[in-house]
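User: Okay, second chain of the day. Same drill as before: sequence in, structure tokens out.
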Amino acid sequence: MIVPDGPSPRYAQAAFLEGSFSNDSGTRLYKLFVPSGYQGQPSPLIVMLHGCAQNPDDFAAGTRMNDIADADSCFVVYPAQSQSANQSRCWNWFNASNQQRDHGEPSLIAGIIGEVAKTYHIDQRQIFVAGMSAGGAMAVIMAASYPELFAGVGVHSAMPYKAAQNMFSALSAMRSGSARTAPVDLDKGIPIIVFHGDEDDTVHPRNGAQIVTQLLGPDAARVVPESSAVPASPDQARAHTHTLHRDADGRVLAEHWVVHGAGHAWSGGDSRGSFTDTLGPDASREMFRFFEAVGRSATSRRGFVERCLRALKIR
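Assistant: Same drill. Structure tokens below.
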């Protein structure tokens, strides 16, 4: 993005801007949604990572995240995987070089976040990351690699952190779940919301439960899941099971949504985008609601976030 000098730019109406970021790991384009209500005030940021064969415009249309975010003056950035890095435009979540901070694709995504936060007044306590399929797997990698940067993570139809180290193990994890869930070095769990269709024949739904346990970290042993089955209804044609994981004080640390009868598609999505299922609970709205809730309790993370942003040379 061409970054203007002076104060953060202000817009009288919503804008969907193009940008690019480069470092030693390469260059990635991105699209940035600037909400219509932005007047320079501290604002949340959601990082949306698309799946294979998708791009930012397609993912934005299918999830409708821009429309949802605009109502609450929230920024949304969509990093784009390049076809030169992966022929199918998948994030390379299964390569060890892309599974650690300050290297490979995670460093590029972190750099894009840094560039946006340097240009606009982003609330450092309310930065979230979400993704679908390969993008969901990369969202998990970002949360595990930069835990101090993100207040919450949303994952749809994806795989756990370090579920694979090469293409062969990636296909195995996608087919039946990770054989061994790698530990994540966390002082405490990262708030997470996971969606998965129970008839997904691309990524086995077992992966969703593994992600929840993994990112709950040391909190996993102390939470008690509460599950409720929601039947199909005329306005929401897919039944689903919704599981909450609360801490000792009753705060929700994780949500796991299993959408019955759904395949490898964004639940409640818009048919204008690829890999969407117009039926079922609206994953975008539920993720946004979850992010709002955990963002309000993220004040205690501020010191960690500021140190991370300084490391990214934002401040």
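Confidence is low (pLDDT under 50) at residues 2-7.

User: Thanks, on to the next one.
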